[in-house]
Specification:
Elements (H helix, E strand, L loop, with lengths): L1 E5 L8 H14 L4 E6 L4 H10 L9 E4 L3 H4 L5 E6 L5 H10 L2 E6 L3 H16 L4 E5 L8 H11 L13 H9 L12 H16 L2
Parallel strand pairs: 1-4, 1-5, 2-3, 2-4, 5-6
Helix pairs in contact: 1-8, 4-5
Length: about 200
């Protein structure tokens, strides 16, 4: 069993969206997956409740609370953790020690990037493995590329592919499905996620 967590000291950077889509990608590729909703807002759980009323979509993985995690992960190939924001260094130490990979989403702005680097530094200090994911990147905007270049130049590990911003994210969340069920331009961020998720699977193989 492998554990991947989506973590940042800052909220609103795409942790839940990325965690849900990674769990979905793993499930449709044949893995038994448990998504642990450790966010106080219970965003993933609320999404699953909307999915239950969507006759065209079935969630192909389990979603459980952190308290129920120990009883729910038996037989899972992957555990995906959607964490809450504002972690202490002790919390981040636990993620570093317990997870095969910590994914740190960030938007292409200074405050999000600072939170990402602080999170990455804490993971490294606890000998964990991490990678920064630039998410919600505006189309035709140089900020994401410039941020990635700056992070890499500073010695941080960053996914080559950024997740572009798209209205499909909001539509999928409201409808209780994923970007994979979107069509046309609404589906474009899913293509980015597929590239990133393939890289994740290679990193922890």
């Amino acid at each position: 069993m492998k554990t991947v967590s989506f973590v940042s000291k800052k909220g609103g950077v795409g942790k839940t969206t990325s965690a849900i889509h990674f769990a979905y990608w793993l499930a449709i590729n044949g893995y038994a997956v448990v998504l642990v909703d450790d966010d106080n807002n219970r965003t993933a759980t609320n999404w699953a409740e909307r999915a239950e009323s969507n006759p065209k979509f079935d969630v192909p993985f389990k979603i459980v609370s952190f308290r129920a995690m120990s009883k729910a992960i038996g037989g899972a190939d992957y555990v995906v953790i959607d964490s809450q924001a504002s972690h202490t260094d002790d919390d981040l130490k636990d993620f570093a020690e317990d997870c095969n990979l910590v994914i740190i989403p960030t938007k292409a702005d200074i405050s999000s990037a600072r939170a990402a680097t602080e999170t990455a530094d804490a993971i490294v200090n606890s000998n964990g493995q991490y990678k920064i994911l630039i998410a919600d990147a505006p189309g035709y905007n140089k900020n994401a590329k410039e941020l990635r270049d700056d992070l890499v130049e500073s010695g941080y590990s960053v996914f080559a592919k950024a997740i572009r911003r798209g209205e499909g994210v909001n539509h999928a969340a409201l409808n209780g499905n994923t970007l994979a069920q979107m069509t046309g331009k609404y589906k474009m961020p899913w293509r980015d996620y597929e590239t990133v998720f393939s890289e994740i699977s290679e990193l922890i193989a």
